[in-house]
Amino acid sequence: MTRLVVGSMSVPVSTDHSGYPAFKLVVHGPAGVGKTTVLRVLGALKKIEDPPKLASELASIEAPSGETLFFDKITFHAGEFDLEKGSGVRLHVWATAGAKHHIQQRKITMEGADGIILLLSPFQKDLQDNREVIDEVSAFLPKLPLQILINKADSVSRQELLETTDEIMNYASEKGLSSIEEPIAVSVLHATRDLLALLSSPNVYQCLTIEKRLKRECRPESMDLIAKGFRLVAYQAILNRLRHSSSAGSK
Question: Please, which residues have CB within 8 angstroms of residue 237's CB and are 6 or more apart in sequence?
Answer without folding.
Answer: 23, 25, 114, 115, 144, 145
